[in-house]
Structures are given as structure tokens and as C-alpha cells.
Design brief:
Elements lengths: L2 E8 L5 E8 L5 E5 L5 E7 L5 E3 L7 H4 L8 E3 L5 E2 L3 E4 L2 E4 L8 E2 L12 E6 L3 E10 L10 E10 L3 E10 L3 E2 L3 E3 L15 E4 L1 E7 L5 E7 L11 E2 H5 L7 E6 L7 E8 L4 E7 L3 E5 L7 E2 L5 E2 L6 E5 L14 E2 L5 E11 L1
Antiparallel strand pairs: 1-2, 2-3, 3-4, 4-5, 6-16, 7-10, 8-9, 11-12, 12-13, 13-14, 14-29, 15-28, 17-20, 17-22, 18-19, 18-21, 21-24, 22-23, 23-29, 24-27, 25-26
Bound molecules: beta-D-glucopyranose.
The site of beta-D-glucopyranose has 9 residues, from strand 24.
């Protein structure tokens, strides 16, 4: 396999963003840029071999600059919400940007989605990938600690698009990294109502009207949120006010990447499995996606795509009984999330 690199565009500070192409012999092609670790396209064949781009996104660097709701970008330093945009750490109160009402969302004003990442690339007979690195400085967006983050994107001959993260800090900090892909296995022609989904979770994090955790974990016992068995999305989403924007707690039987979710589009036969080492996955059905034109000049609208963001629970810094997101200087943060594509 190999990596092709071309110039994607130039930023206002004269730095260049690259566009990388990873392709395997099974017909899968992934394009991504080191601006925000943004995935530009993912071509996947259907039953008849017809290729379709299964992610939303943008054609140009200019469009990637936004504003847009984290379409296919990396998210950090803390993915998801932090209540009242503050937390206490080591006896000190830290204040973050209030960019979601009075709360904090997805790392702040200039998060990891809006920075240019350093990169190196590699390829062998079975795998091709890009290693992206970013040094997030002490107090950047209000977070303590110089944090060195490495994210390795790769595609292999088993149709796995893997995103592997590692990070190290020089002071105690809170960290919750994710990638925010917007998927539509039929190529963003229609909503995701004709997709089926299964989520390997028997509980979820209860949230209030501002999507902030109440602190309670709710057991799933049937109803529209329960996806322990594969179900069509359309009939379930219609039972909800806005759609899905829920943090599911993955049922884990082993260490290492666990199957968290399966998405299937019966008409085309395209299927995507998501495996992760993270404890939870945010299932977001693009409820707030309006007023934006994406690649091919397509008008983006509510419920056009689904996001399965592998991560820790929202607001963990303020919820001591949630799995910890604290990273100490003598530790290494690691996460692996794999998207595996099938045709059935
Ligand atoms: C959140 C949504 C938010 C979206 C875009 C998702 O991760 O769960 O509430 O609107 O990201 O920012």
C-alpha cells in the first residue's frame, strides 16, 4: 500500500495543509488532511461494487476552516461537554470557554479540530498511514499542562480505518479525545432513517435539557434508546423530540478494542463496525445540522448523518464517580478506535 500526498491549501499564516490519500486493493479510499485531522472522504463499494462516499464533509480547505460542527475532525482537549465551563484540579479552579450556552463543548474556541498537525507517513504491504502530532501548550484553551498528542490514522487490507491516539503531559490535566466522523452509508442523499444500528450498551449517561450529565446512569430496558438488538433508526428517532445525542456505556468483556456499534444500510449492503478501547460512545444523529452546504454543494440538514464518537463520559472532571479522565505526567494516554467496512 502507499500514501499519496498533495497540497490541500494554504492557511492565512502561510502554512500548508496537505491532503493524504490511503487506498487498499479492496476498493476503499480514504482522504484526509492534517488540518484538524479532518477526514475528507471515504469511498466504500456496495453489493454491486458501486463506490459511494460514506462521510459528509468539504471539498476545500477553505470550507474546512468553518464554522461547522466538527465535521469529521479530531476533537480535544476534552470532547463533549463540561458543566459551567469549569473544573477543579489539585485545589485550583480552571475556567474554560463557554461555547455551548454557559457550558464548554469539544475543547473550546480553537480546539484540536482547528489546528494544523505535524505529520509523517508510512506504508507497508498491508497498511498505509499518517501519524499526526500536536503540542498543545500549557493553559491553551484554559487546560493545564503541555500535552503532546500523537494520532495515527491508517487503512489496511482488512478494510479497517484505525485511529490510534497517545498523549503525554507535564502537569496533571483532563483529557478526552475523539474523532467526530459524520457517516451516511448511502452517501448523504437521504437521512439516516433507512440505516439500522446496534449499540453494544446496556446503559447510558442521563442528561438534562442542556445535554449535561445529571450524574445518573440509566439501564436500558427497551424503548427508542435501546439498541442492544439491531433496529431501523427511522421509527425510533421519530419517538424522540430531537434525535439521538446520548452517551452509551459500552458493555465490555475484554481489554483492547471492543465492538461498540454496528451500522447497516440494507439497500446498499454497506456495513460499518466500530471497535474501541474507550468506555463509551456518543451516538449523535446530526440533530443540529442545518444551514450548511457540504461537498458537491449538498445542503446539509437534520438527521443526514450519524456520529459514533468513542470517548469517556461527558463532564467527567466534575463527576467523580465517572471513569477518570485525569492524565498525570507519569502516565501515557492511549486510545484505539477502528472503523471496519463490510458489504453484506
Ligand atoms: C454533541 C452534540 C453537538 C455536536 C456538534 C456532538 O458530539 O453530542 O450535542 O451538537 O457534537 O458539536
Amino acid at each position: 500500500m502507499k500514501v499519496d500526498t498533495e497540497l490541500f491549501g494554504r492557511l492565512s499564516n502561510q502554512e500548508d495543509a496537505q491532503l493524504f490519500t490511503l487506498q487498499n486493493s479492496q476498493g476503499i479510499t480514504v482522504k484526509l488532511t492534517n488540518f484538524g485531522g479532518t477526514i475528507i472522504s471515504v469511498l466504500v463499494p456496495d453489493r454491486k461494487g458501486k463506490l459511494e462516499d460514506v462521510v459528509l464533509g468539504f471539498d476545500s480547505l477553505e470550507d474546512c476552516l468553518g464554522p461547522h460542527p466538527y465535521i469529521n475532525t479530531l476533537v480535544g482537549r476534552y470532547a463533549n461537554r463540561i458543566a459551567n465551563a469549569k473544573f477543579n484540579l489539585d485545589g485550583k479552579e480552571y475556567h474554560l470557554a463557554q461555547n455551548a450556552g454557559t457550558n464548554h463543548l469539544h475543547g473550546g474556541i480553537k480546539g484540536y479540530d482547528k489546528v494544523l498537525w505535524n505529520y509523517s507517513q508510512y506504508a507497508d504491504h498491508d497498511r498505509a498511514g499518517i501519524m499526526m502530532s500536536y503540542l498543545s501548550f500549557d493553559m491553551e484553551e484554559g487546560y493545564p499542562g503541555n500535552l503532546k498528542v500523537d494520532v495515527h490514522f491508517s487503512l489496511n487490507e482488512s478494510n479497517e480505518l484505525a485511529i490510534e491516539y497517545s498523549a503525554a503531559t507535564d502537569r496533571n490535566t483532563y483529557l478526552n479525545l475523539t474523532h467526530h466522523g459524520y457517516f451516511n452509508l448511502n452517501g448523504a442523499k437521504n437521512t439516516i432513517y433507512d440505516h439500522e444500528i446496534q449499540i453494544n450498551a446496556s446503559s447510558y449517561v442521563e442528561t438534562d435539557k442542556d445535554l449535561m450529565p445529571t450524574g445518573k446512569i440509566i439501564k436500558l430496558k427497551g424503548g427508542p434508546l435501546d439498541f442492544r438488538k439491531m433496529k431501523l433508526i427511522g421509527p425510533e428517532i421519530k419517538k424522540l423530540e430531537s434525535g439521538f445525542d446520548h452517551c452509551y456505556i459500552i458493555d465490555r468483556e475484554k481489554d483492547g478494542p471492543e465492538l461498540a456499534a454496528v451500522v447497516y444500510h440494507p439497500a446498499s449492503g454497506r456495513k460499518m463496525e466500530v471497535y474501541t478501547t474507550e468506555p463509551a460512545i456518543q451516538f449523535y444523529s446530526s440533530n443540529f445540522l442545518t444551514g450548511l452546504r457540504g461537498k458537491g454543494n449538498i445542503k446539509y440538514r437534520k438527521h443526514l448523518a450519524l456520529c459514533l464518537e468513542a470517548q469517556h463520559y461527558p463532564d467527567s472532571p466534575n463527576q467523580p464517580h465517572f471513569p477518570s479522565t485525569l492524565l498525570k505526567p507519569d502516565e501515557i494516554y492511549r486510545q484505539t478506535t477502528i472503523h471496519k467496512f463490510w458489504v453484506e
